[in-house]
Amino acid sequence: MSSLRHRVLPPQLLLKWPKEASFCLWLLHPEPSCRPKMGELLESEFLNEPREDLEEREAAMQLRERIEEQDLLMEFLLLIQQRKQEAADKLQDTISLVCSDIEEVLKHQAFLKKKGGSIPENTKDDNLASNMPTFSIINNDDSSSLGSRKRFRPGVQILNAEEFDDNLDDGQNSEMVTESQESTLLKSSRLMRNFKKLESAYFLTRCRPMRPSGKPSIRHSPISSDGRSSIVVTERSSINTLTPKEQQIESRRSGWISPFLEGLCKYLSFNKLQVKADLKQGDLLNSSNLVCSLSFDRDGEFFASAGVNKKIKVFECDTLINESRDIHYPVVEMTSRSKLSSLCWNSYIKSQIASSNFEGVVQVWDVTRNQVLTEMREHERRVWSIDFSSADPTMLASGSDDCSVKLWNINQGESIGTIRTKANVCSVQFPLDSSRSLAFGSADHKVYYYDLRNAKVPLYTLVGHNKTVSYVKFIDPKNIVSSSTDNTLKLWDLSICASRVIDTPLQSFTGHTNIKNFVGLSVSDGYIATGSETNEVFIYHKAFPMPALSFKFDNTDPLSGHEMHDPLQFISSVCWRGQSSTLVAANSTGNIKILEMV
Predict the structure, then answer these.
(1) Which of 83, 459, 499, 556 is deepest in the core (most CB within 10 A)?
(2) Residue 533 vs residue 248, higher pLDDT
């Protein structure tokens, strides 16, 4: 500012803006009379010319902003186009996949009818056509060149109509396709309620790597009651007579169609759980009636219950179902010195049942004599779970809060092996076909699978649960289902693992509630039964992640008979009756029901 007083301007100003510098020198003239007056300033060339330049500059800036806005819009639209094109390509791939699967199913239908030989030749095509839904085609002249094809299912409001854009080779107008009859699938409201999950399960099954199929099993034709061979020819019995093309169809079918079809049929086979018997016991008013474990004998004739009332009660199942009684008494009752946590019936020796209690004692009972055969006291803390080996009925395993799994030979009365772990063991289970392997669930959120011939390290570790693994069960020799207090069940396939750690389950089942209690787990022929802390029994099928059936226990006051609401009640144990559709379930108040899928 002191330099300006002496009319000394910055050199940069003089070089870059000479007009502005000259105007400043005029304003700073040393003689006041020579300085410009207001009128001269307003009429000066300096103030008038830049005003036009400023308007041009503002117009240029506005134009540049509009161009930038248009560029932004164009970028947005191109991004939409790219994503929609990717979605369209993916949808086209999906449609192509579904169309190829429909073609495969149609080929297999024709193959089955050809092999059956029981359908007259002139009716095969008619029956094949009748199995497919018929369509009525309505031309729509207002459609675009791409053609929008819509399919409507009359009478069904659950699903929205789906739109597909197809390129028509002959340039014809789009067609609106309307089904004239409902397929049998749409008649199932349960299927429609779970359509999205079933769709996800289909694509999961479809995209799963196919296992190499082994040698097909050959089944002899059954003998009828009169001693003659049956004329029914099974698929497997005629597999060796197939042509190469037929073998290819059969191979592709066994890859993904069979597992999904089996799961879908079994998922839709039953509509509800029906009470076949409601067990009424004389000590129902006992405050400590929590049933911790249920177990059927090898023939499904008797089942036993045990819990915090320190009693093992054996009931005859058919008697409970067929006879209505005011009070049901057990055929055998055995008393323990401590609260009981687990039961397991010997799958070979019908009269033997094993139990574990809260003091860490494992006992083997003779049910017919109502006495203890063997008592084993090596665990230091509570034993949560025991299991007899189906392959070796003299071998028993137990898991405890002392972070160990012990293997017992019931004839010796002492452990023959111990597996040390870092956390509490909540459940132990032998495979169905071997006594040399063992799986157990742990409080460290993991499932461990051991080869007992090398019990130093686990053969596989299954990682995926977020909380304690409370139960493990073998669905078959290579598939394990685990239950956790993270509200999930998980299915694991040991046959596809490439390392010792498996962190991707085959399936995760959700729908029940389990955050703190032992609610039971049992498997039968692909069906998985579990309890819930909502006092409900849930049935899943291994193929799908959502429940197939559920049943809620009613809370009835034993004195008044009135319905009660008790949020603390939960299902505490479930057990299937062999490979049947019947199971027994118990809750935290000692209420035991025999349920059947119907």
Answers:
(1) 459
(2) 533
